[in-house]
């Protein structure tokens, strides 16, 4: 029974590989946040800013047009800051997200507006790596997001080798987990790599696990400091205002004894010259 399943799976993969080769399909597997350039293999020369090239996401049904008539399509307006097209009409996607996963099609048109040749098919898969902390342990997850069925094998490596047997690991479809101590992650996080292999093409890639990027840390650090400063200001400002008002109020109100002494001095200064004048 096991041998039969193995033969069946081998035949299935062989058919898929043959189909991909015949249709000229190209696939890319990138990590979340990366930039990827999807090449269009059937580009017609002599275009003005790729005005006869159309990029679509999805199959023949429910597809979304991303680029058409030399510009980003209105249906992709929300992604316009991440999408662009090169001189050879390749589609560039910046800061890839899991929502970018899918089947892309590059379609060419002649000068009369008729489609010329078949679509060029491009598949994009995205690798996401996350961590989930639980007290003094953390579970690392590496998964490949796909628009259809899983066509990748995923496993964790440490220093380029299989993990120690004493580590808690699990695999399911296009996902793999490993649980380690938090201290080990902090000191050796760059030694953990996710091995992703495309079963159709045989292409193997290694993705290094990284803690939160320095840019993200800087952004969060600055934001937290700003929020902290605002909170402190809101607490301290009323106290400062109250103190200033109290100081001013005390300055304007002199003690009664001090006022009497000042009045006596002023009276003596006024009466002194007058008495001298009468004596003369």
From TrEMBL:
Keywords: Membrane, Signal, Transmembrane, Transmembrane helix. The keyword Membrane applies. Residues 1-24 form the signal peptide. Residues 254-280 are annotated as: Disordered. Residues 33-107, 118-210 form the Ig-like domain. The chain crosses the membrane at residues 221-245. It comes from the Eukaryota. It holds the Pfam family V-set. SUPFAM superfamilies: Immunoglobulin. InterPro entries: Ig-like_dom, Ig-like_dom_sf, Ig-like_fold, Ig_C1-set, Ig_sub, Ig_V-set. PANTHER family: IG-LIKE DOMAIN-CONTAINING PROTEIN (PTHR11422:SF11), T-CELL SURFACE GLYCOPROTEIN CD4 (PTHR11422). This is Uncharacterized protein LOC127142638. It comes from Lates calcarifer (Barramundi).
């Amino acid at each position: 029974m096991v041998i039969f399943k193995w033969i069946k799976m081998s035949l299935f993969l062989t058919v898929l590989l043959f189909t991909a080769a015949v249709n000229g399909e190209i696939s890319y597997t990138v990590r979340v946040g990366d930039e990827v350039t999807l090449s269009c293999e059937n580009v017609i020369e002599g275009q003005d800013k790729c005005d006869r090239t159309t990029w679509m996401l999805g199959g023949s049904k429910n597809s979304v047009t991303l680029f058409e008539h030399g510009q980003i399509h209105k249906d992709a307006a929300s992604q316009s800051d991440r999408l662009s097209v090169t001189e050879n009409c390749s589609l560039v996607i910046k800061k890839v997200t899991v929502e970018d996963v899918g089947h892309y099609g590059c379609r060419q048109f002649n000068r009369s507006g008729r489609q010329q040749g078949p679509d060029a098919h491009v598949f994009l898969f995205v690798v996401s790596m996350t961590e989930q902390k639980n007290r003094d342990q953390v579970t690392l997850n590496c998964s490949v997001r796909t628009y259809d069925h899983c066509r990748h094998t995923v496993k964790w490596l440490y220093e380029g080798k299989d993990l120690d047997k004493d580590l808690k690991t699990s695999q399911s479809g296009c996902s793999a987990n490993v649980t380690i101590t938090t201290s080990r992650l902090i000191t050796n996080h760059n030694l953990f790599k996710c091995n992703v292999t495309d079963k159709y093409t045989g292409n193997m890639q290694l993705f290094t696990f990284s803690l939160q990027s320095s840019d993200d840390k800087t952004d969060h650090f600055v934001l937290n400091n700003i929020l902290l400063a605002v909170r402190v200001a809101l607490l301290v400002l009323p106290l400062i205002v109250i103190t200033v008002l109290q100081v001013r109020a005390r300055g304007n109100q002199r003690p009664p004894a001090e006022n009497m002494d000042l009045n006596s001095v002023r009276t003596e200064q006024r009466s002194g010259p007058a008495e001298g004048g009468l004596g003369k």
